[in-house]
Amino acid sequence: DIRDLTVNINKILSTCDRCNGSNVLLSDGISAFIDSTIPYLYLPLPVCENFQSAFGIEWNETVQGYLVNDTLHKKLMNQNPSVTFTISNSSLASAPSVNISLPYAAFDLIAEFPLLRNTSRYFPLMRAANKSQYTLGRTFLQEAYIIADYERRNFSVSQCSWTGKAPQDLIAIQSPENGAASGKRHHLSPATIAGTVIGSIAVAAALGLATWVLYVRRRRVKQPRPMSGKTSDDGAGTSGELTTTENPVEVDGVSFPWHEIGEKAGHGSELGDDAVAGQELEAETGRELDASHVWPTEVCDTDVAAIELPA
Asked: Model pTM greater than 0.70?
């Protein structure tokens, strides 16, 4: 966020070595943002009027800016005035400060289409409508550089050095997360630890539930399906299923097993002698056999064998 790069402008002073003069352009400190996305200096109207008097520039209502014609440009080039910004991180007079000096060349800019139909020189100074617009743009950064350390929430502003063939000296800013750079071990906050523990428990519970559901489904697939119907009272069989009794029905000395329906089937009790279904075979049903009756078994067209029931 560019608003994090806020400085206090304690003073702005204009000096001219060739004309032996100086002008105080700002004496009461103001706070301003350093923003590299715009080329202008947005300053209070009284400060802009002081710039007009010191440099001879005029406000153009049509283009809403300060245009510089060729005559004024040559004059300023000969005088070579400079503007010094005294900035600090506090409005207190005792706060440490640094001076950033800008020569006229830093203000010598050219506007072209679509800003203007015809190319013209302009002075990159704008009138701020309120305090929230006080800004030091790229014009200021032509003569200054910034070192910002967002992890430690601090930054510094320094004057550019134009010494020819100066050796390059780049120093990396170590992250405070690096134990070797900070000299301290990094500890997790209680909130981070609690979140990690809760997340681990939630994942373990989800895995356990998924394993249990899969296990139950597999058991259901492997279990045989029971026969339809209700079980009898003794649990030995299924209702509706015929069971062989131990009491045979004698037919002339021959024992044949007869069947009864379980207590839970049908009407819920053993059928009586006079019931239609499952009743004891009577002699008049034609199914009672006597001793003289035989069961023929056909072997071939001419040979018939009979099996006689025992008396």
From this structure: no
CB neighbour burial string for 107-132, b if at least 16 within 10 angstroms, e if fewer: bebebeeeebeeebbbbbbbbbeeee
Cα separations (Å) of 6 from 1, 111, 154? 10, 28, 10
Q: Please list the residues that pair with 111 across neighbouring strands.
A: 120
CA 51/CA 7 separation, integer angstroms = 21
Distances (CA, A) of 156 to 11, 91, 159, 225: 18, 16, 10, 81
Residue 287 DSSP class: T
Which ranges of the chain would DSSP assign to H, the alpha helix?
A: 45-55, 70-79, 138-141, 179-182, 190-222
Burial class of residue 43 (count of CB atoms within 10 Å of its CB; 0-12, 13-18, 19+): buried
- CA 221 to centroid of chain Cα atoms: 40
Contacts of 2 (CB under 8 A, 6+ apart): 33, 34, 35, 36, 37
Question: Whole-angstrom Cα distance, residue 15 to residue 207?
Answer: 76
Q: How do the pLDDT tens digits run along the chain, 311 residues long?
A: 457 799 999 999 999 877 767 889 998 999 999 999 999 999 999 999 999 999 999 999 988 999 999 999 999 999 989 999 999 988 787 788 999 999 999 999 998 888 788 889 999 999 999 999 999 999 999 999 898 888 888 888 999 888 888 888 888 888 887 754 444 555 667 777 878 888 889 888 888 888 888 888 887 776 655 555 444 444 444 444 444 444 444 444 444 454 444 444 444 444 444 444 444 444 444 444 454 444 554 444 444 445 555 55
